[in-house]
Every structure is written in C-alpha cells, then in structure tokens.
Amino acid sequence: MRVKDRVAIVTGSARGIGAATAARLAKEGAKVVVCDVSGQQCRETAVGIRADGGEALAVACDVTRREQVKDLVQKTVDTYGRIDILVNNAGVIRDNLVHKMSDDDWDTVMNVHLKGAFYVTQEVQKYMVAQQYGKIVNISSTSALGNRGQLNYATAKAGMQGFTKTLAIELGRFHINVNAVAPGFIETDMTKATAERVGVDFDQFREMAKERSVLRTTGQPIDVANAILFFASDEARFITGQVLYVRGGI
Ligand code: NDP
C-alpha cells in the first residue's frame, strides 16, 4: 500500500497508460479520479477498479476546457476532501511532416498536452500548496528528443520537460515533488494509430520497435504505470525536477 488513502487525479485515464496508472495507484491504496473527454469509457475504467476492490470516481473532462477542469477538481475535493497526486497524462497525436502539418494539427497537440497540463496543474496546485503536500507526475515522451513526423508532438513533449523542471523549482518549498516520465514505444491505441498512419501492420511495427530496444522488447502500459507510482509515492521524497525515460534502452 505505497499510496494508501492518497487522492489521485489521472487525466486521460479511460484507456492505455492512464487506465493502467489509475488501476496501479488504486491497487496501492489510492482513491483515484479517472477522466476522459466523453466520460463514457472512463466510467467503465472506474467500474473495473471498484470490481478489483479499489476506490474510483469517473468525471468527464476535456483538459483543454478551463471550466471542465475546474469542475473535475471541485468534484474531486467534494468527494475525497483533498488532492495528493496529479498525473498529467492526457494526450493525442496529429503526426505529419512539417510541410504538411496544418494549423489544427499543431494547435490540437499543443492544447491537449501543454495547455491541458497547465490548466489542471494550476487548479490542483492550490490544494497541494494549502496541504503542504503533493506529487505531480507529467508524461513526456522519448519523442521529446526528436522524431520524424512529430514536430508538434515532439515540441509539446519537450515542453513538458521544461514545465516539470520549472514547477519543481516553484513548488518545492511547499513539499510538492514534480517529475516526468518519458515513455518509449508502449503498446496502446496511440501506437496502433501510428502504425496505421505509416501503413505498417501493427505486429510488424512492434517487431521494428523490439529491434530498436536493447532489451529486445516493447513496453506495456503497466511498465509506465510502475514508474509513475514510484514518483507518486513517498519513496521519491527527495527526487524532484527529474525526467525518467521508460523506453527499454532505445
Ligand atoms: P491513448 O491514445 O491510449 O489514450 C489517451 C487518453 O487521453 C485517452 O483516455 C483519451 O481520452 C485522453 N485524452 C485525449 N485528449 C484528451 C483531452 N483533451 N482531455 C482529456 N483526456 C484526453 O494514449 P496512451 O495511453 O498511449 O498515451 C498516454 C500518454 O502517454 C500521452 O500523454 C502520450 O502522449 C504519452 N506517451 C505514449 C507513448 C506510447 O508509446 N503509447 C509513448 C510516449 C508518451 P478519450 O478516450 O476520451 O479520447
């Protein structure tokens, strides 16, 4: 029970890495708030967590909408009385080469990753500051180091690292740790969509990713969830402003 009775918000937690993280935190004793845009799929995620003996609340929230973010935070506090852990996980891809990238591709990716993380963090940190306790984990990506066809996404994910380091400096005095996890190839709907876009069968795409990993394997959502759990727990008490790559040594 590494996060027993802690209250956690995981954005974009209906599926993939977010859902695995919510379930992992709940297994370790946290009360988790799961959210996605429609609120439908995250309700199923919450039902699954409760069926496993955990505590979960589902809230519809588009992180790019300030009013919806305020509502998410208010519902969390009304239900559980505090917020100890925030995982800024919600994400989308709109891949294209620079000469083909539309304004909408650029804006959508910037808005979900950067503006979304800013909105949720700004609303949540007030409670963490008042409590003098908090753990914020931001999801960056190996793409932050540069990746063909992902100018918008790579820029946003590099931005998440600056966001992490600056928040760590500003919020450290309030006993709030801020770290980032930067995954490599993780098998989720997102990597399936990438395979489809480049016109490669997913099994073949996975094999290509395995060859690039020194461990000769791909990542699963639980591999990222385990790293997030570490940063969200008091085991990481003396660690802040760090980026942990979870990418099988690619
Ligand atoms: P998925 O596509 O499987 O899931 C993304 C989740 O984000 C969904 O629940 C989706 O909700 C939610 N989401 C999207 N837009 C919004 C929004 N505006 N507001 C709230 N929620 C939103 O992605 P992954 O699980 O693969 O990715 C999770 C995170 O990890 C992302 O930040 C991604 O960039 C990052 N990442 C993933 C890697 C990978 O290989 N998979 C590698 C590196 C980083 P809905 O169902 O309603 O659309």
Automatic annotation (TrEMBL):
SUPFAM superfamilies the UniProt entry points to: NAD(P)-binding Rossmann-fold domains
Q: Which PROSITE patterns match?
A: ADH_SHORT
Q: What class of enzyme is it?
A: oxidoreductase
Where is each Ketoreductase domain found?
Answer: 6-174
| GO MF entries | 3-oxoacyl-[acyl-carrier-protein] reductase (NADPH) activity
Write down the EC number: 1.1.1.100
Key words, A-Z: Oxidoreductase
Specify the superkingdom.
Bacteria
What Pfam families does this protein's entry cite? adh_short_C2
PANTHER family from the UniProt entry: 3-OXOACYL-(ACYL-CARRIER-PROTEIN) REDUCTASE, 3-OXOACYL-[ACYL-CARRIER-PROTEIN] REDUCTASE FABG
Q: Family assignment?
A: Belongs to the short-chain dehydrogenases/reductases (SDR) family.
The protein's name: 3-oxoacyl-ACP reductase FabG
What species does this protein belong to?
Fodinisporobacter ferrooxydans
Gene name in the database record:
fabG
